[in-house]
Design a protein that fits this description.
Largest sheet: none
CATH class: Mainly Alpha
Radius of gyration: 17 Å
Strand content: under 5%
Number of strands: 0
Order of helices and strands: HHHHHHH
Oligomer: single chain
Distance between the termini: 35 Å
Number of domains: 1
CATH topology: Ferritin
Number of helices: 7
Shape: globular
Mean pLDDT: 87
């Protein structure tokens, strides 16, 4: 357990403060930069900052869930999802910089809160743990879909990133269901959605 805590602490520092890396090519990187006004660039950068925060939260959730789970199959699934989320971190981080924006000042807060939620979810058993993962990914999918409607039409580079992220989130949810995820109660889903709405609202500005 001590080794796991040390590794977890190192991962937290890397996620929040270090530059993320990607193995896959960044979606849309071969496309030309769009001609956008300063206002459109600020808006696109803010939306990508929100997406970056979401990936910070995802890393923490997966870490908390994996830390408390005793099922090696679930740990492996969470590790695979976390790897792809690390790539999402790199993509959104790079796009924020290209748009002249910045990452959220509150990333350490988002990470800490999500880690605690992930650990709590895992304490209710494997089915609930996987159910929480599946529901998280479904809500993220809906959130990304809404961003496709809010990003400037000509910002194809950001759109390509968000589209590929959406594809990956759907796959993560399907994996959780295949491994035995249970459907979460409606009040829990509503609480998750409310928490997500608060985070995305604050992260757009901070």
């Amino acid at each position: 357990m001590l080794d796991q805590l040390i590794i977890g602490f190192d991962k937290a520092l890397r996620t929040v403060f270090a530059d993320a890396y990607t193995v896959r090519p960044v979606p849309g990187e071969t496309l030309p930069e769009a001609d956008m006004s300063d206002q459109e660039k600020r808006h696109a950068a803010s939306l990508m900052r929100v997406n970056h925060c979401g990936e910070i939260c995802a890393q923490a959730l997966y870490q908390g869930q994996a830390l408390m789970s005793q099922n090696e199959g679930i740990k492996k699934a969470l590790a695979g999802a976390a790897h792809e989320e690390t790539e999402h971190l790199a993509w959104t981080e790079r796009r924020i910089a290209e748009l002249g924006g910045r990452k959220s000042f509150l990333n350490p807060v988002w990470y800490s809160g999500s880690l605690a939620i992930g650990m709590l979810a895992a304490r209710f058993g494997d089915g609930v743990n996987l159910g929480f993962l599946a529901e998280t990914e479904r809500q993220v999918e809906a959130h990304l879909d809404s961003h496709l409607g809010r990003l400037p039409e000509q910002d194809l580079r950001s759109r390509e990133i968000v589209t590929q992220m959406k594809v990956d989130e759907v796959a993560h949810a399907d994996t959780a269901v295949r491994l035995g995820a249970v459907e979460l109660p409606t009040p829990v889903k509503a609480a998750m959605k409310a928490t997500s709405k608060l985070m995305t609202g604050v992260a757009y500005w901070l």
